[in-house]
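ARCHIVE CARD
Drawer: 12
Card no.: 0347
Subject: one protein chain, sequence and derived structure
Cross-reference: see card 0346
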Amino acid sequence: MRPTVTARPQVRIARKARIPNKRLKQRRGSVKDPAYRAFVRSFGCVACFGKLILDGSEWNMWRIQTSPTECAHVGTRGLSQKASDYESLPLCAIEHHRVGPESHHKLGKRFWGFHGLNRVELIHQLQELWKTQCWARQREPDSHRTGRGSQ
């Protein structure tokens, strides 16, 4: 005699609802400051002039910059990450920043030795100048910033 097989009741397996993958902390990217980038672009290329030009008196002294100045992110960074805006220097767009054979993008870390520049010192000078200008702006009376005189 054959044993009788009893049919098992069909059980439906409930699927778990997908839990969205949310980070508790947002990823920390590089610091972005459009005002600081504009401030950096207001200077001449540090490679063309061999130093940071603090005023317009030396612009045409011994070399003419042929392309507009860009804010080059030259600070330390991780893989595939851009450095902070506060670690940037003014470099001319074509010759020294991106395209030229002596550019920062072509030479990489050798760029600074090739041009005889101290990257850390230049970044520090620019940051100190930015701090003094921000401090001066904060100390101005409100009437100067808003354009309103005393009434």
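Annotation on reverse: The two ends are 112 Å apart (CA to CA). The beta strands are 69-73, 88-92.
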